[in-house]
Amino acid sequence: MILDGKKISEQIKTEITEEVKIFSAKNNFVPGLGCILVGSIPASEYYVKSKVKSCGEVGFYSKLNKFDSTISENDLLFEIEKFNNDAKIHGILIQLPLPNHINEEKILQSVIPEKDVDGFNPINVGKLVLGQKTFVPCTALGILEILKRYKIETMGKHVVVVGRSNIVGRPIANLLSQKEYGNAIVTIVHSASKDIASFTKQADILIVAIGKPKFITANMVKNGSVVIDVGINRIQKGNESILIGDVDFENVKNVASAITPVPGGVGPLTIAMLLQNTLLAAKLSVGGNY
Fold it and tell me: Which residue, among 255, 279, 244, has the nearest Cα to 141 in the 3D structure?
């Protein structure tokens, strides 16, 4: 079975559009997302444009502020503070990566927790680890939606997460180990693991976010497992630039019972979850609950 993230994301956008109509009629404003893009990396520009376009599709207000890669750290912090204080902006997105002269951690921490719809502020990270209500990082939330909407059982299952990034690996491992979100037995493997395949072959659910094209091959996957491929790798195939995942899709799909494609799997859901978190931030701003 192919786990169609694009289809799910369209369903979620439709649901959000209806919620926004009700919300705006009641509160006389719409949710707002402020986006900050530094430099001119083509992939980053594409992702931000997709997010801004999606805001328009669901009835959000959005504002994109673009800056040269030479902007100073202090000037960037000043621009973020303007979004922090802007009543029309309920969520703030800092498109990564940032130029080397800018401290990425400092920038992400400058977004106030109430507008941290990416879930990167240490306060929100701490709440997540403690099992408290907070903004969940968008990619991890997207994975949860795939599992939920395809009715894939997680309770008591062995989930193996390949990769330990703060954006994907750590948050999804934490969430799926918690009673509310997954109640699963979770193993994290990473670059220090001497025999990654010995772990991946045990997985009932295998989540891969390692950033290496086709790293997971069919002989590394247990028969009948569910495979979630978070990887997005752009490679050259002849004269064409194509996207492939961290999983050897064509071969692994014959072993797995369910698998996400790349593109069209987790990626579209990351944007949908950004919209969902922004709507949540707007609700919280008028006294709503998580």
Answer: 279
Question: Does residue 97 have a cis bond before it (omega within 30 degrees)?
Answer: yes
Question: Is 127 annotated in the active site?
Answer: no
- Does residue 208 contact residue 163 with C-beta atoms inside 8 Å? yes
Alpha-carbon span 266 to 6, nearest angstrom: 8
Contact 237, 259 (CB under 8 A): no
Q: Which residues pair with 228 in a beta bridge?
A: 207
- Tell me whether residue 51 is one of the annotated catalytic residues: yes
Choice among 95, 204, 214, 253 that is catalytic? 95
Q: Are 177 and 36 in contact (CB under 8 A)?
A: no
95 is known as an active-site residue: yes
Domains and CATH numbers, the chain: 27-112 (3.40.50.10860), 138-267 (3.40.50.720)
Question: Is this model's pTM higher than 0.90 or not?
Answer: yes
| Per-residue pLDDT tens digits for 94-127 | 999 999 999 999 999 999 999 999 999 999 999 9
Give pLDDT tens digits for 134-163: 999 999 999 999 999 999 999 999 999 999
Residue among 13, 115, 116, 118 flagged as catalytic: 118
Cα 148 to Cα 141: distance, rounded to the nearest angstrom:
10
